[in-house]
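It would be a great kindness if you could assist me with a short task in structural biology. The matter concerns a single protein, recorded as an amino acid sequence and a row of backbone structure tokens. Kindly check, if you would, that the fold set down in the tokens agrees with what the sequence suggests. Thank you for your consideration; the sequence and its tokens are set out here:
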Amino acid sequence: MKSYSNTNQIPTINREHFYQFFRSRSRIAVMVAVVLIILGGYFVYEKYFHLTPAERAKKELAAAVAGVSKLIILPQGDEPVLATVTDAKTLIAQQAFFAGSVNGDQLLLFPRNLKAILWSPSRNVIVNVGPIQQTSPEAAKSETPVISATGGITGQANLNDSKSKIKNKKSK
């Protein structure tokens, strides 16, 4: 500690040390505030914006139905099942129904009305429409829909429905 010869002399604080002290504290305060904002944002996102797979499937189905309903009149009283084309080249080689489809196209299946609609959301066009036919009583019990020989699906291995497997609700 310094001793002062003149009693009227007031001790001064080194300004550099003073500012350095508050700079380091302000950095800590800013970092704490940033962490709290990030955590708060995460919890708000989880509570209000994070969707479960079932909720996401409902939202995706509603968007597909809304898009297709602008282009064609959809069957009433039937809950559609949505599937997404993931390997268009293979499907086109196996089934004429998928001619003109690309990866990302969506297939809406209406099991009660036995109707299938292939829709391209990226191009906003209906690629194809066809009937779903059950060829035998065993097929009626099967969970795999079958589209007629004019084009269609014979299996679900080539389709990726990210929410659930394609199910023929008529068989329930």
User: Anything to note?
Assistant: Residues 53-171 form one domain.
